[in-house]
Amino acid sequence: MSAPAIEIRGVSLSLGEFAVHKADVSVSEGEYFVLLGPTGAGKTVVLECVAGLHRPDEGEVYVRGQRVDDIAPERRGLGYLPQDYALFPHLNVAQNIGFGMRLRRKSGSEIARRVGELAELLRITHLLHRDVLRLSGGERQRVALARALAIEPKVLLLDEPLSALDEQTREGLCVELRRVHQELGTTTMHVSHSFEETLAVADRIGVIHQGRIRQVGTPEEVFRHPVSEFVAQFVRCENILPGTAARQARGLRVEVNGVGFEAEDGPEGEVFLVVRPEDVDVVRAPVGEGVNRVAGRVAAVVDKGALVKLSIEGAVGMASLMGRRAFQGSGLKVGEEVVASFEPEAAHVFARE
């Protein structure tokens, strides 16, 4: 079996208010991996250890099986896109893209060919002779990405590449990042604080909090099966219900504030029962027959564009996300008596820490 493209083994580093503790991360060849976490979690510190901008206090960093702790950043074969893009204002777009190739003493014809190929791939051919100071945020991001790719890196490192962009531009560039990755197959490690952005691009996710890697898995695993209260909160499960679980003939029964719920599986004892709000259905009372139903009252309705969020108060409070058309068709209003329900397979149960 080939070595991982990136391997971080027990890395610890303290940089004032930012720190990483015993971080272990492995990124496979050709994978798009996102390190996801809130501001100050330590995700950029991890990325900068891989880039060579910091040497770990403890632990080791490997790139394609080679330990790189003592290797200078420019000799690691990495493409790096910092958060501020760091374009050179005295160079035009084409010169910025070709800068790394010129440092490597590539011929003028080779530089021109590579710049042209990347400009076409990233749809910025019309910008090649433009001053970088006259570019929009999205255009600067494309130019910086082209510059990082121009040296044909073994690994591409992206530090919050979309954080400074407006929502519409960010959504469009997520599509571009995924398309470019699929076409080039470059192993990519991308730092982000946005789970919407992460869902759009990631093959796998590592969630980091307070300098510690809390969970690693596919987007489906992390968003549907969080392993801790923090991860559940961060990926906006919203319905995170403390209860007590006991095995029954089929599956698990979880008691929450005197209300019994069923889940397919999980540990016994003191647990959290987690249900994503998009998996919670809300209809007018009465309760009727069925499992995982709880009566309540619509306490708030929040317009979220294509979706509408309902907050339900009752013995067990719950949040539900409904499509706008479904909500309008339901006729539900604040103050109405309703029933919130979910299927046992939509429930995820994990032990309380």
Written overview of the protein:
The strands form four sheets. The protein has a six-stranded mixed beta sheet, sandwiched between helices. Strands 13-12-11-14-20 form a five-stranded antiparallel beta sheet. 26% of the residues lie in helices and 35% in strands. The chain is elongated and about 75 Å long. Helix 2 packs across helix 3, helix 2 runs parallel beside helix 4 and helix 3 crosses helix 4. The chain is of the alpha+beta class and 353 residues long. The model has no long low-confidence stretch (mean pLDDT 91). It contains nine helices and 20 strands. The chain folds into two domains: 224 residues, Rossmann fold (3-Layer(aba) Sandwich); 115 residues, OB fold (Dihydrolipoamide Acetyltransferase, E2P), CATH 2.40.50.100. A hairpin with a 2-residue loop joins strand 4 and strand 5.
Quick overview of this protein structure:
The protein is of the alpha+beta class and 353 residues long.
Shape: elongated
Question: Strand count, sense and closure of the main sheet?
Answer: 6 strands, mixed
Uncertain parts: none
Report strand order across the widest sheet.
6-7-8-3-9-10
Distance between the termini: 36 Å
How much helicity do the residues have?
25-40%
User: What is the total number of structural domains?
Assistant: 2
